[in-house]
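Recall that a protein's primary structure is simply its ordered list of amino acids. Everything else, from secondary elements to tertiary packing, is in principle encoded there. The following example makes that idea concrete.
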Amino acid sequence: GELAAESIAAALNVGDPTAAALATYGRARKAAFADKRRAAWLVEAFVRSPKLMDYAIERIAIRPGVQTTMTGVLGDYRDAGAVLSPGFLWNALKP
C-alpha cells in the first residue's frame, strides 16, 4: 500500500501517470522485500536438509536471543536483514 501510494503520488505530482513513471513502484517493492527473500531462501536451504535443520534447531534452542530474532523475522515484525549478518549467523550456528 504505502509504496504504491508513494509511486502514484510522485507520478501525479509531476503530471506523468504513465506506466514508465509508475515503474518506480516495482523497483521500490523489489528493494523493500530483498532481505525478506534472502532470509526465506536461507531458511528453505536448512529445511531441505534434515541434518542442517537438526544442527540449527539444537543451537537455536539454547540461544534465547537468536530465538527472539528468528521469531520476529519469520513473524514479519522484525527486519529480515537481522538474520543475514555474519555475526548473527555465527551466533546462531556456532558449535
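Helices lie at 2-13, 19-22, 24-32, 34-47, 50-60, 64-74, 86-93. The mean pLDDT is 89.
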